Amino acid sequence: MEFQDQYEQYYQQIPDDIQKCLASGRRLVLGYTSDLDVLLEWDEEIFNSILDAYLTEPPSVKNGDAIHSVKDFARIVSAYAARGQGGEIDITDNAACTFLESRFRSRYALGGTAAQGAAALNTLGFPVLAHISDRSLEVCRLMDQPGIETVTQAGVVPIIQAATGELPVRHMILQFPKGAKIRILNETVEVPLSNQVIMDYDSVHKNLIIDENFRQFCEQQAEELLCYTISGFNAIVDPEIMQSVARSVGAHLQTVKRRNPGCVRYLEAACYLNPVVEDMVFERLAPHIDILGLNEEELTGHARRHGAEIKSENPASIWEGLRLIRRKYPISGILLHTKDYSLYFGEEIKNADIEKGLTIGNLMSGTRARIGCYGTYRDCAETCSLPLSPAGLTFHAQLTAMEPGIRVVPSRYIENPGCTIGLGDTFMAGVLTAFV
Fold this sequence. Notes:
This protein is α/β, with parallel strands linked by helices.
């Protein structure tokens, strides 16, 4: 099946969709986490000097690994970079954080899937309601834009009015570019893909607690919710804590759906610090969500742990991975996002234009990759003019031939992205336009 490029058509609908939200008072809702990202500026010479001094064994990263020292940083991050693979891992030593900030130039940015998604949608012009976990002044200032609101005891308020005096939660992020040359035990290795490693110096998100004011608002005003996206469970490492969180969140989502059957519930996955917790999230929350969002690394990693070896460059293999997830979990559908295409595999969702959501998701994440920040309406117009990804077109042709009901939208092609941070979060935000 030949791909029908509707980027321009869907792009032109955005202003009307924004007005619909503003006029109706109905809300795009995002939860649950936020943090302060410390963006370490890539410097090949500095990174290699750290490997020269601290890498004493072959690069590796294992289940349950954490960065307890600079030696661990060298071993683990070089493993990710050599494969061009992104990941998220705990960093437990503040001295290691201080060391990295002393060696690399850095700047602060907004972190957390819910927070980034809210900021991305609001930059485009949509009003949003967001639950954030880190309400430090630093984080709230980064989200202080007209149209981003949250819930406190005072009701629905601008996000800055929820700020507290607490210290921010820091996530250290090192982004490595495609083509970088890194020295691994006297051998030079070329980084095959641009990606990043997120290092969490974070105890707050080990037990994710939904704010009671936010919970009550979403349940009592459920008819106002167009969709409800949840994320942020990936930092939980204790299965008993996750079991308790899943019980609470599941009951909450069930109440929202009972009071508003049209509200689409969307779980965005992530790189989990504990794979046992990831399985528990999927198993316990699947009965209470409609859509599960993944990237190809999360899909292949999850499938591998359950006995299926999925090759992300092979359309037939990706299809098998999608079918495995649908067989395992009682969800309506899966959203898969990659640098070359996005897709939806599952049941039709009433009153939703999924292909539009995929397209706007690609457009918003592509714009962030291109310019390094959340895109305005005008910024997104320039991304529309880029060519379609050849690999994405191949995936579209082959996957739609295998499964006629699947929706596949190739991305606009960006050879060397200027940014890989928050692309999945920004894509997820764009998908929510499907439910306006």
